[in-house]
């Protein structure tokens, strides 16, 4: 039995809909500023933001760095923090789901730290690490680790008990059941965590940069505010949005590829 | 532990005075099986027949070692059963396949967990995949298979561990009537091909008559007790609509509250 791939063509109207809405949004935005409905000191029109975008590709002033440097700083911090939170959070969550001792030890601490907004750590991280890279990586790590632990934990807990019994009838050890049954069972939840953690990391990164930084997309937004330049603020916001969306898309592609065989 | 009667054919499984009570909501005891005495011979196809909620699955789980009886004991080849083990192959109603493994991966899982080298275990798995007629589907994942095919994987997986006893818990309960009938024929064929001691739990009287060497009829209510026993010595392959089968069907139906 072979399954055929059937190409489903979306009707043209559905394909162009996203462009229609984005285009209409930009036009409306341009119009309300240009027509003077909203004064241009409060909001920059998209055309001005675009000009600034081209300009900021090579011009470090007035905020001290070109756009690529800001983006690179943010991405670096985000990926370091994100990577570390996956590295620690997922194994911890998996272990908490299967080993009672780990759960008993780690859960109370985790439940205490979990409700504290990552941004609340900023003053302490400034004391400890200054306003450089390390402090922000720490905050992103705190932000990303929560969904990693929770999803990995729930994923292991959702392993079908009958499958575990089945493995026991084969004489499998606890460790074998953990590795060969619980971890594969938890995979879809873990991939969910990759997405959620990325979103947490990215938003908290920008929050952290708003308060303590000297470069980065969040810093660009803050500087735009201080200089009374709405075009810089909007450019920063759009850069955050687009880079975040691209990151999410990449994770989504990786997930689809890795999980190709598992659908249920 | 000596078992009474040394006459052949040899005794495979012996259940002595098994009772089990489940505790519900912390303090309400629900007696599920009571005073079960049961002997199963080598290579016998034993069907435990009863309606839902009659303790027949619990009895099977006790034999599998997944539940411990409150009183009594089970022996397999004279050795007491203390927990689950590879000498008893289980097939569940809900298939219970490993969704992230292919057909091959599922069938070889038990052997893999016991550390049998890849070449050897795949040869064994391939043999049983062929036996259940899935040789063209080795690389398929469970979600690509129909219900009947999934249960074939379950049967092949249980066989692959070369268990002394096969324990099947309403294996065809989720299949449509047509597929179910077909799987009964397949089960009979596979069993004739590779004889094993089988304990097969079902609520379907036709299934029981078609497959069994002997039917254990359970009481229709809790606590589960053995009500009657029927030896079925019709020749195989059988026909669901054969006159003598239908006569016995009427006899058994009269004996039960079971209307099927």
Structure description:
The complex is a heterodimer of chains A (264) and B (260). Chain A is an all-alpha fold. Chain A is built from ten helices and no strands. Chain A has helices spanning 12-34, 46-56, 67-98, 100-113, 122-129, 133-157, 161-169, 174-211, 217-226, 230-258. Chain A is flat. The longest helix of chain B has 17 residues, at 177-193. In chain B, strand 9 and strand 10 (226-231) form a beta hairpin. In chain B, helix 2 (103-113) packs across helix 3, helix 2 (103-113) runs parallel beside helix 4 and helix 3 crosses helix 4. Chain B contains seven helices and ten strands. With 260 residues, chain B is α/β, with parallel strands linked by helices. A six-stranded mixed β-sheet of chain B has the order 6-7-8-3-9-10, with helices on both faces. Chain B has a four-stranded antiparallel β-sheet with strand order 2-1-4-5, covered by helices on one side. The A-B interface holds A 1, 3, 160, 162-163, 165-172, 176, 180-181, 184-185, 187, 261-264 and B 64-66, 83-86, 88-90, 92, 94, 96, 98-102, 109-110, 112-114, 136-137, 141, 143-144, 161.
How would you summarize what this structure contains?
The complex is a heterodimer of chains A (264) and B (260). Chain A has 264 residues and is mainly alpha-helical.
CATH superfamily of the largest domain in chain B: P-loop containing nucleotide triphosphate hydrolases
The CATH topology assignment of the largest domain in chain B is Rossmann fold
Largest interface: A-B, 23 and 29 residues
- The N- and C-terminal alpha carbons of chain B lie at a distance of 40 Å
The CATH class name of the largest domain in chain B reads: Alpha Beta
Low-confidence stretches of chain B: none
Q: What is the name of the CATH architecture of chain A?
A: Orthogonal Bundle
Protein structure class of chain B: alpha/beta
β-strand amount of chain A? under 5%
Write down the overall mean pLDDT of chain B: 87
């Amino acid at each position: 039995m072979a399954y055929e791939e059937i190409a489903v063509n979306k009707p043209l109207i559905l394909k162009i809909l996203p462009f229609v809405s984005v285009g209409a949004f930009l036009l409306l935005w341009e119009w309300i500023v240009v027509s003077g409905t909203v004064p241009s000191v409060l909001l920059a029109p998209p055309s001005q933001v675009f000009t600034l975008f081209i300009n900021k590709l090579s011009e470090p002033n007035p905020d001290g760095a070109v756009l690529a440097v800001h983006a690179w700083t943010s991405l670096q911090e985000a990926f370091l923090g994100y990577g570390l939170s996956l590295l620690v959070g997922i194994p911890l969550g998996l272990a908490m789901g299967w080993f009672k001792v780990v759960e008993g030890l780690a859960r109370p601490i985790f439940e205490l730290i979990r409700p504290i907004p990552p941004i609340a750590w900023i003053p302490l991280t400034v004391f400890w690490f200054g306003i450089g890279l390390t402090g922000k990586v720490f905050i992103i790590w705190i932000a990303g680790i929560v969904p990693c632990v929770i999803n990995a934990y729930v994923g292991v807990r959702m392993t079908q008990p009958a499958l575990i019994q089945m493995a026991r009838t084969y004489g499998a050890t606890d460790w074998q059941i953990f590795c060969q049954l619980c971890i594969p069972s938890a995979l879809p939840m873990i991939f969910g965590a990759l997405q959620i953690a990325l979103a947490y990391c990215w938003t908290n990164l920008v929050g952290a940069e708003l308060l303590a930084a000297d470069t980065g997309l969040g810093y660009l937004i803050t500087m735009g505010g201080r200089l009374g330049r709405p075009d810089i603020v909007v450019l920063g916001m759009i850069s955050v949005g687009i880079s975040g969306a691209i990151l999410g898309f990449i994770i989504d592609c990786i997930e689809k590829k890795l999980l190709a065989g598992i659908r249920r | 532990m000596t078992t009474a009667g040394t006459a052949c054919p040899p005794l495979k499984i012996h259940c002595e005075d098994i009772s089990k009570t489940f505790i519900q909501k912390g303090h309400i005891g629900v007696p599920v099986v009571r005073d079960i005495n049961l002997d199963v011979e080598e290579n016998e196809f034993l069907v435990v027949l009863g309606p839902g909620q009659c303790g027949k699955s619990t009895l099977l789980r006790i034999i599998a070692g997944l539940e411990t009886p409150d009183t009594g004991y089970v022996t397999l080849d004279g050795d007491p059963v203390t927990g689950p083990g590879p000498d008893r192959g289980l097939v569940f109603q809900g298939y219970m396949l490993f969704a992230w493994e292919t057909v091959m991966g599922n069938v070889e899982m038990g052997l893999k967990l016991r550390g049998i080298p890849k070449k050897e275990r795949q040869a064994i798995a391939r043999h049983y995949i062929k036996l259940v007629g899935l040789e063209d589907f080795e690389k398929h994942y469970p979600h690509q298979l129909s219900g009947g095919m999934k249960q074939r994987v379950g049967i092949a997986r249980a066989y692959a561990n070369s268990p002394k006893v096969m324990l099947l818990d309403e294996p065809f309960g989720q299949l449509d009537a047509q597929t179910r009938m077909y799987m009964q024929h397949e089960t009979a064929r596979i069993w004739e091909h590779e004889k094993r001691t089988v304990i097969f739990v079902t609520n379907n009287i036709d299934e029981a008559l078609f497959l069994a060497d002997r039917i254990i009829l359970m009481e229709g209510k809790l606590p589960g007790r053995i009500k009657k026993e029927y030896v079925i010595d019709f020749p195989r392959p059988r026909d669901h609509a054969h006159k003598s089968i239908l006569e016995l069907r009427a006899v058994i139906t009269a004996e039960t509250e079971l209307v099927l």
